Hints:
Bound molecules: nicotinamide-adenine-dinucleotide, uridine-5'-diphosphate-glucuronic acid
Radius of gyration: 24 Å
Structural class: alpha/beta
Largest sheet: 6 strands, parallel
Distance between the termini: 74 Å
Amino acid sequence: MPFSKNILCIGAGYVGGPTMAMIAHKCPHYKVTVVDINPKRIAEWNFDDLPIYEPGLDKIVTSTRGKNLFFSTEIERGIKEAEIIFVSVNTPVKTFGAGAGMAADLQYWEKTARQILKYSESSKIIVEKSTFPVRTAFAMERILSLTENDIHFDVLSNPEFLAEGTAIKDLEYPDRVLLGSRETPSGVKARDELVKIYASWVPKERIITSNIWSSELSKLVANAFLAQRISSINSFTALCEKTEADITEVARAIGMDSRLGNKFLNSSLGWGGSCFKKDILNLVYLCRNYGLSKEADYWEGVVRINEYQKERFVLNMVSAMFNTLVSKKICLFGFAFKANTSDTRESPAIFISKRLLDEKAELVITDPKALDNAMTDLDGIDGKISYIEDPYEASDGCDAIAVMTEWEIYKSLDFEKIYRSMVKPAFIFDGRNILDHKGLFDIGFNVFPIGKPVLTHF
Ligand code: NAD
Ligand code: UGA
C-alpha cells in the first residue's frame, strides 16, 4: 500500500529520533524518514544498540524500522521526497563572537534552511521542532522565499516538550501539543495537516494552536518556569540547613496548595540537561537585545542560583571532610543529568567532578548507563579518575559517596556491605535526597543531605 504522506525529520538526536519513532508508530500510513549529517549516529539508529538510552524507545523503533520508519544520511533525497519536514537540529549556546555564552548558535539551523531551499522541487510544510529564539520562523521564511522555483513553503512552529528519561510516555500522552502558524489560508491549511498527524493519538483538546511567535516563545518560557521552580526550592536549602528545617517537609507543605502544585519541587545539587541553561540564557540575551535589562536580570538569576547550588555542594563536602580532600577517594553515584537517561549534557556531575579534582581528590565514577559519556566529558582533565559500573566495587576503599543522579538502584543497595568496605569515618553526600538518611546514620555513615539537618557521629 503506498504511503499517504512522506514526512522527513532533519536531525536524528534526542528529539528527532524518539518523536519520529512515535509518529511512525501511531501513523502507519505515513512514511517517516530521519536524516542526519552524522553517519555514525544514523548507523546506530539502524542497529539494535540505539544511540540514546530512553525507556521504551527500542520497542517502538524495532516495530516500525524498515516498515514506515527509516534512518538515512541521504538528506538531498529526503528533502526532495518529503511533503512535511521537521527541523530538529541542535541549537547550542554560541561559543564565539557576538552573544558568545548566551545567544543560540543558529548555524545548524541556517544550513538546514539552505539545504531545504537548494534541494526542494515541490511545495512543503517546514516545522520548527528544535527550540529557537522567538522570531526564528521569520528568518526561515526569508531564506526559503529566495526560491527560484514556483514553490511555496509554510513555516510552522511545533516545539517539543518531552523530558529525557520519560520521552516515550511524554510523546504518547502529551500534556499538550502546540502548533503555531501564520493565520493565512495556506498557514491554516498547513496547520491542519499537522493537527491530522497528532490527532491520530492525541485527544483533540490537547492539540492547541497559536500564532507562530507565541508558539516559539512558549517553549522558552516553559523551560524558564520549570528551571525557576527548581532554583526556587533549591534557594531555600541552605536556609533549611542552617535552621533545622527540612526542605522535603517544606516542599510537601507548599506543594499541597493546589495553586502551586507538587511537581518539580525535588531539591537537588542543581539542575542540568542540555536545554534549561541554554534556553534561559537565550531568553536573557533576547531580553537584553530588546533593551529589557530588568527582565533579563530576573531570569539570569535562575541560572546564577543554580551555579551557586553546585558550588555550595562542593564547599559542603570540603568543610565536612575536615577541610581537605587531598588524596581522598570519592565515589560519585551517577553521572547522568537525571535518572533513566545516558545523557550527561550539562550534568551537575561534570562541574562537581572538576571541582573535586581541583581539590586534589581521587574520583571513582559509577553509573548504569552514562559511563561512556562521562569518560568523554572528563577526557583530558588532570587528576585520577576511574569508571566502574558496579556500585559496590566502585565505593570499595572510598572515603565518601556523593549521589549525583537519582537512579532507582541506589535506593536498594546493601549499605551495610558498602560501609564495611569504606575508609572510616565514611561520608555520604546525598545530592538528590533519595537515600534513607536515618538508616545510613544508624549503620555508621556521616550523612549530609540537601536542605536537611546533617546526621554525624562527631
Ligand atoms: P542532538 O544534538 O541530540 O541532535 C541534533 C542532531 O542534528 C545531531 O545528530 C546533529 O548531527 C544533527 N544535525 C545538525 N545539523 C544538521 C544538518 N544540517 N543536517 C542534518 N542533521 C543535522 O539535539 P537534541 O537534544 O535532539 O535537541 C534538538 C533540539 O530540540 C534543540 O533545539 C533542543 O533545544 C530541542 N529540545 C531538546 C529536548 C531534549 O530533551 N533533548 C527536548 C525538547 C527540545
Ligand atoms: C526539560 C523539560 O522538563 C522538558 O519539558 C523540555 O522539553 C526539555 O527540558 C528540553 O527542552 O530539553 P529534561 O531536561 O529532559 O526536560 O529533564 P527534566 O526532568 O526537566 O530535568 C531537568 C533537570 O532538573 C535534571 O537535572 C533534573 O534532575 C532536575 N530536577 C528536576 C530537579 O533537580 N528537581 C526536580 O524537581 C525536577
